[in-house]
Fold these 2 entries.
Entry 1:
Amino acid sequence: MLTCNNMAKAVTHLLNYCATHPDAIIRYHASGMVLHIHSDALFMSEPQARSRAGGHFFLSEPSTDPSKPPSSNVPLNGPVHSMCKIMQQVMASAAEAEIGALFSNTRKGKELRLALTEMGHPQPPTPVMTDNSTACRIINS
């Protein structure tokens, strides 16, 4: 529940961000309407040994060769969805936190793939990048 005190803190946080980054912009470019996901996790970064999961979902060009892992130099675009949440389970390792973040992100990716397909943009296997260096294709249905 959002109280007046919490609202004042949230507004102050937003105004501080705007004052610190006056030239921040989000730019969207015309693209091939193929969903891409970048996933990451922070291990034990929250109280009670919780980890944080994050995801950046954007539309870009399709991969040139679907049989090979996606490259990390895909043209970036503005986000269509961003995820940042505290995982409820306590993770035993950083690798387990990464897998948990992948699970959360690909679950949301399925919803976005369905929406894009229903809007007339059929989706090839969705490239998912995790831990800033590893790329794989996870969603294919």
Entry 2:
Amino acid sequence: DAISRGIASTRWPGRLERIAAQPEIYLDGMHNPAGAREIAAFWEQHLAGRNIHLVYAALRDKAVDEIAGLLFPHAATVLLTAPPQSRALSAPALGQMTGHHARRFEVIPDPREAFERALELASPGDVIFVAGSLYLVGELRRYWISRAAAPATT
């Protein structure tokens, strides 16, 4: 019983973490093909028929073409960016390497601008999914928290 309660109450920030409801926003630090397969399965089971706007970045040493082949065809829009990390693959290079897998993609080097673009594109019933790098997820998780805490401007 204690194990079940412990598992049920476990929080793992940045791993299939839902941070908003309308549109739904998920963060997942997936950075390998096995993780991409899990995300694709989650999309099929829980998000079928909904528009997914994927904000994606990767480090240079990752299997980006394989990951893109697993995820990009299922996304309405892919927003390619790069986390502020020296090992990051640049957004333009990522676009050249993986853009052919996407129905529609945009290259937006700044991750915060890519995230804001996803928010512009998403309707309340859509889903924004941030994935591909723990660095990206950490950056945008901090940004979302600070954005939500900022006083509204008129």
